[in-house]
Amino acid sequence: MAAGLDSLKFSINAADSEQFEEVMGVKPKLYDDALTNLRKAYEIRESVGYSTRLYASSIRYDGDQQARMEQLVSRFVRPYVDEWYELPLYSMGAVATEREAELGYKPTAGNQGRIGGLVKPLPCWSAFTEGHVRSDGIVSLCCFDADGRFQVGNLHEDSWMDIWHNEKFQKIREAHLKEDLTGTVCEECVAY
Questions:
Q1: Are 175 and 181 in contact (CB under 8 A)?
Q2: Distance, CA of 8 to CA of 52 (rounded, Å)
Q3: 59 - beta bridge partners?
Q4: In a 3-state reduction of DSSP, which class is residue 153?
Q5: Can you spell out the DSSP letters for 161-189?
Q6: How far is 4 from 9, CA to CA, in rounded Å?
Q7: Could you check whether the bond before residue 28 is cis, i.e. omega within 30 degrees of 0?
Q8: How many CA atoms lie within 13 A of 30 on its CB side?
Q9: What is the C-alpha separation between 150 and 70, in angstroms, rounded?
Q10: 35/58 Cα distance (integer angstroms)
Q11: Rounded to whole angstroms, how far apart are CA atoms 133 and 106?
Q12: Cα–Cα–Cα angle for 7, 13, 16, nearest 5°?
C-alpha cells in the first residue's frame, strides 16, 4: 500500500474452515488467516490513509450454501471492503476440479465475469487486463492457477512489463482473440 498499490482483492468462497478444507484441500487455518488478512488490510489502510481499494468476491451458490455465504459475507467481508461482488461457479482448476465433480458442482464455461454483468467466455478478459502475482514473485495469467500451469514469468528474473509482453503471454492472447484454445493451458477452462 505504501508503494502505491491500486487495489487488493480477496476471494472468499467457502462458508467456514471445514468447507474450505473439504473443497480446496488445504489447511483450515488458512481460511481463518484469509479473513484476518482482509480485516488487517482494511485496518492498515484506514489507520494510515492509503488509497488502495479493497475488493472481495464470492461464488454465488444456491440453497443452504448461499444462505451460509450471505451470513459470512455480511459479518466478515462487507464491513472491510469497498466493493463485494458475486461470481458464477467457475472451475477452480487443479485439485479443486476433482472435488467439484465429486460434490456435484457444475462450473460455468470460462471466466465470464461478475453476476449482473456476465460476458461470453472468449476471449477471456483476464488475459488482457490482469496479471496475478504469487507471494514468490511468479506471475500467472490466470487467478485459477493453483497448480502453476499458467505461469508466464517471474518478477525476480524479469520486469513486469517484460513479462506482460513476453511470448507466452502474447501466444495465449492470440489464441483467445481467435477463440481457439486448442492445445493451450486455457482449453480445459472453456470446455464446460
A1: yes
A2: 7
A3: 87
A4: strand
A5: HHHHTSHHHHHHHHHHHHT--TTSTTTTG
A6: 15
A7: no
A8: 13
A9: 31
A10: 13
A11: 28
A12: 120
More confident residue, 64 or 158: 158
Q: What is the pLDDT of residues 54-94, one digit of tens each?
A: 999 998 877 788 899 999 999 999 999 999 999 887 665 55
CA distances from 87 to 26, 52, 57, 115, 118 (A): 22, 22, 7, 5, 9
User: Would the pLDDT of 105 be above 50?
Assistant: yes
pLDDT value of residue 190: 62
Determine contact, residues 52/6, Cβ cutoff 8 Å.
Answer: yes
What's the rounded Cα separation, in Å, for the pair 99 and 177? 31
Distance CA 190, CA 186 (A): 7
Of the candidates 40, 34, 44, the one whose C-alpha atom is nearest the C-alpha of residue 1 is: 44
> Tell me, what's the pLDDT at 114?
80
C-alpha cell of residue 55: 475488493
Q: How many residues does the chain have?
A: 192
Residues with Cβ within 8 Å of 149's Cβ and at least 6 positions away in sequence, in order, are: 93, 185
What confidence score (pLDDT) does residue 192 get?
45
**Looking at the DSSP assignment, which residues form a beta bridge with residue 73?**
none
Strands 151-154 and 138-140: antiparallel
User: Distances from the Cα of 160 to the Cαs of 29, 69, 149, 154, 166, in angstroms?
Assistant: 32, 35, 19, 9, 10
